[in-house]
Design goal:
With 198 residues, the protein is mainly alpha-helical. It is built from nine helices and four strands. Helix content is 53%, strand content 5%.
């Protein structure tokens, strides 16, 4: 949200405060707004609606974020679903590129795409737990697109002499799907190459 959104934000927050019988000061409203700047106005409205349906007390910014994105474990499970879709689509052959680039960090930390995809195909139980643990760590560490490889090689590799412009047709693009009612944290939009605001 930008400065132009402050008026609507303050109005919404004051309505919620009345609902919960809370007195807001200008300082509290400003602090709350600063904490929620990374949200879009639409996300803020959705977070408020979800909290009002379930919350017994006036929300904190962290409660709004959890209403929108779930817990770190919820985000890890959404990312795990992306990995399973990729394994079904291309197996360990690759190469693959996930729109949630934290997955690249996790997969590389676990031994690479071939190792992880092969373990999933074999039904090995450790893979999901390790993936989720590494993903939560990546969230806490603040891994972003600058710190990861742009794609993960599979056991087929890339053809000899493949040029940069060939990559778009050779690489399996795996979109980051939202969960039922949960947004994903900071995924790269492939059409623009930019990250979403959170």
């Amino acid at each position: 949200m930008g400065p132009e959104d402050f008026g609507k934000f303050a109005e919404t927050l004051s309505h919620v405060a009345k609902l919960y019988g809370v007195r807001l000061t200008d300082e509290k409203v400003s602090l709350f707004f600063d904490a929620c700047r990374s949200l879009s106005p639409e996300q803020f409205a959705v977070g408020i609606k979800r909290h009002v349906k379930r919350g017994k007390f006036f929300p904190s910014p962290s409660e709004l974020f959890e209403a929108l994105f779930g817990t770190e474990e919820d985000q890890a499970m959404l990312a795990w679903c992306d990995v399973l879709r990729a394994v079904r689509a291309c197996g360990s052959g690759g190469p693959v590129r996930f729109c949630d680039l934290r997955i690249h960090f996790v997969i590389e930390s676990m031994g690479g795409w071939v190792h992880v995809a092969s373990a999933i195909e074999k039904g090995e139980k450790w893979v999901m737990k390790d993936f989720k643990d590494w993903y939560v760590f990546a969230l806490k560490k603040g891994v972003d697109e600058d710190g990861v490889k742009p794609y993960l090689l599979g056991d087929r590799g890339l053809p000899y002499g493949a040029r940069q412009e060939d990559l778009s047709r050779l690489i399996w693009e795996i979109p980051a799907c939202d969960g039922e009612g949960l947004y994903r944290l900071c995924v790269v939009e492939r059409s623009s190459g930019t990250a979403s605001p959170v």
